[in-house]
Amino acid sequence: MRQRILMLTAALCALSAGGRLGASPLSFRNVEFYADSTLTNGSRNGGSFFKGAGTGARVSMTGASAIGTVSFTPDGMPELSRWGISGRIRRADLLLGTLNFSSARSRLSSPQLTVPSALHQTTVLAAGISPRLPGFTSSKKSPAAAVSFGGIQGAWVFGSEALISASKELRIPLTSSAQVSLCAGLFNLKGSAGSSWFTGRTWYAEQTCLAGTADFSFTTAHIVSSTAVALHQNPRGAPSLWVRTHESLTAGPFTLGAAFFAAPPGLVTVSSTENYTRLQAQLNPQVSFRLAGYSAAAGILAHADFYEGKERGEEPYVRYSLKADMRLINQVSSLHANSTVRYSGLTEKFEWSSKVQGSVRLRNTSQNSSLTVKSADGSRTYTVSQKSTFTGGKAARFLKSASVSADFLDDEESGFFKVKSVTGSITARSGGKKIKWSAKATLSLTF
């Protein structure tokens, strides 16, 4: 913790010096304070009713900002869990702290397709590594330094990786936009864990490996196309190359989306994760229309995953997902319903889930309610949630939102029905232009 405080102090001094070397003069804009706390039933938390808490502050200035949070746990000392500082010197944006990265860096870590909403809109794959300061509730990260200069971004995650990216917008006839980007880096792989006999994969020691990706995207009035190709140095032998592409075609109210992913056996990602997904394919037709004064949309998403066996002697298998979504929206209310059916060739079992969510905007509040039902392995789980967001009136001066959710378990085989958990939270906020504050209190009960 002392080293992080020293690094933060040194960065502040460097940015102050940068202001004297040609950067914009620093002037105070505002400061925001944050605090949160979570309580739970003690029998489920080692006898302690206190689960955790955090507090922090964010200072914003013209051309610079800084953030720091301290976390408290029932059995540990206070920890400087998130911190960071950003500034601009001439045309370069500098960042230091427990930074978050996304875009191409995320794809090198987890290249597989996800199963999105059947009403999602296909967009081009984000270029670069997108470094940014942590938020008050971001997951914990390793300290890193990053710089952005035009379309070039570089970063060094202390002791684990160094990477650089470059992107360029292109002018291509008949397209409204086009872009090509490159990202490459050196990454420290932790080494394979456990016995390799069961997995059938050769054990490897901790080492540094090279990985990179090239992305190309373009859009027209009716087409969105985005493709990423990556090459990973494999700690077990020949390099591994994967391909991921997203396409969509729009004609009037109809949209047809498609996505594809392919990787060779034995791929190890930059996060030292073994990839067992060989192929993925998605097909997603959608239609938009008007219905009784509402803007309506409906879509179906068909998704297939082809896996290689994780253990020695295990046969490859396929997992299918079929999702249907429908949405109705007008000026004051919305209704969204979806249902998903999954089948695993490994277990030869079906699972399904459905969710209905509605919201309405009232004079001083916005109400959002949902019901989710999941069925798997002979039991059903029901989740009921309600959230109120305060948008006006006296309550909105201090309260931002209040929410409650409850999980219920219905075991079809034994006929047993019980409450699994109940969670409630209140978020408050206030302040003026210069000083702001927000706080969140959560009570989580598990039965």
Which features characterize this protein?
23-stranded mixed barrel, 447 residues, 58% strand, mainly beta, 3 helices
Summarize the structure in words.
With 447 residues, this protein is mainly beta. Helices cover 6% and strands 58% of the residues. The chain is built from three helices and 23 strands. It has a 23-stranded mixed beta barrel. Strand 2 and strand 3 form a beta hairpin. The longest helix has 19 residues, at 2-20. The protein is globular and about 60 Å long. 23% of the residues are buried. The model is unreliable at 8-23 (pLDDT under 50).
Present the secondary structure layout:
Elements: H1 2-20, E1 28-40, E2 50-61, E3 64-72, E4 79-89, E5 92-97, H2 104-109, E6 144-149, E7 152-157, E8 161-169, E9 177-189, H3 196-199, E10 207-219, E11 223-232, E12 240-251, E13 254-262, E14 277-291, E15 294-307, E16 317-329, E17 333-344, E18 349-361, E19 365-376, E20 379-390, E21 399-411, E22 416-431, E23 435-446
Parallel strand pairs: 1-23
Antiparallel strand pairs: 1-2, 2-3, 3-4, 4-5, 5-6, 6-7, 7-8, 8-9, 9-10, 10-11, 11-12, 12-13, 13-14, 14-15, 15-16, 16-17, 17-18, 18-19, 19-20, 20-21, 21-22, 22-23
How would you spell out the order of helices and strands?
Answer: HEEEEEHEEEEHEEEEEEEEEEEEEE
Helix content: under 10%
Q: Low-confidence spans: pLDDT under 50, at least 5 residues?
A: 8-23
Give the number of helices. 3
How large is the share of residues in beta strands? over 45%
**Helix-strand category:** mainly beta
Query: C-alpha Rg, in Å?
Result: 25 Å
The overall pLDDT, averaged over residues, is 89
Q: Largest beta sheet, briefly?
A: 23 strands, mixed, barrel
For the termini, the CA-CA separation is: 36 Å
The strand count comes to: 23
